[in-house]
Amino acid sequence: MSTTRKTTIALGLSGIAFLTSIFAAQAMAPDEAIEATTNKLHLTDIRVHYRDSYGQSIRATLAGTTGVEIDLDLDGRITEIQGLRKAGFPEQSVRPLLPEAVINNPSYPEGAHFHKLELKDGYKLEMEGYAPGIREFKAEFRHDGTMLEMKKER
User: Fold this and answer.
1) What stretches of 2-133 adopt beta strand conformation (E)?
2) Among 116, 50, 127, 59, which Cα is nearest to 83's?
3) pLDDT of 120-130, one tens digit each?
4) Long-range CB contacts (< 8 A, 24+ apart) of 11-14?
5) Can you say whether residue 153 is alpha, beta or left, with left for phi > 0 and alpha for psi between -120 and 50 degrees?
6) Which of 1, 3, 62, 146 qualifies as a FRET site for 33, CA 20 to 30 Å off?
7) What pLDDT digit, counting tens, does each position of 11-28 carry?
8) pLDDT at position 29, please?
9) Distance from C-alpha of 75 to C-alpha of 26, rounded to nearest angstrom
């Protein structure tokens, strides 16, 4: 074999090894994101629902009894939590995700059960569910605690 050909093969093999190491490192990141989410929300019975180019979705048990689906973006941030049953999940179980300013807003639905909680890129929260005295609500808050919208059905 010629020296040029050997050099080309060696460069090709080292390129493949480099790409393999990059993909292996990326494959570990979703598992780290799941572990961080698990620790933050005290999840059990965790299983990956799907992974794609936008992030991943897991199904788990929240608060010991409530089945939820949690979407994570590529950076491992939670973008949405949705209850798998009509009863939803208690707002107390996701408090670690909520800014103190939102919780302190007088319109915040204290004691609510959420059907869905969306966290929009660090600037907005959207929540749907029910609360004591409210049959159903939809609310939007900015992270600074400002209420943008609240719709209630009594």
Assistant:
1) 44-52, 55-62, 66-73, 78-83, 89-90, 113-120, 124-131
2) 116
3) 987 899 999 99
4) none
5) beta
6) 146
7) 444 444 444 444 444 443
8) 65
9) 11
- The predicted model scores a pTM of 0.78
How far apart (Å, rounded) are the C-alpha atoms in residues 82 and 128? 9
Query: Residue 105: which residues within 8 A CB-CB, separation 6 or more?
Result: 141, 145, 146, 147
The SS3 of residue 95 is: helix
∠ CA 74-77-81, rounded to 5°: 110
Please give the pLDDT value at position 3: 60
Contact 58, 70 (CB under 8 A): yes
Q: What angle do CA 134, 96, 35 make, to 5 degrees?
A: 125
- Per the prediction, the chain carries an average pLDDT of 84
- 68: domain range? 3-153
Tally of domains within the chain: 1
Residue listed under structure tokens 């698990």: 38
